[in-house]
Amino acid sequence: ELNAKVVYEDPDIVAFLDLNPQAPVHALIVPRRHIERLTAAADGDAELLGKLQLAAAKIAKLLKVEGAFRLVSNNGKGAGQSVDHLHYHLLGGRKLLWPPG
Q: Other CB atoms closer than 10 Å to residue 70's CB: what's the count?
């Protein structure tokens, strides 16, 4: 367990600041229930996936980036997923260019 700053938690989700931020604001939003990646989610996970989206909006507001932020989930090693547990990156606090890289 790492010493990350928790910025949001509820019975289904925990969010904390990334220890290696890629933007001035960079939080990880993680479901407590294990889902390996988005493509491993089942129909029964739909409610939790919706809760993750709603939590992201709340977290963006808490971190004062609700006007402009990016929400990203890397699916698989080729996409940069380094932890085998579904999570979202919420990035903000600067202009985010497209394409991302």
A: 16
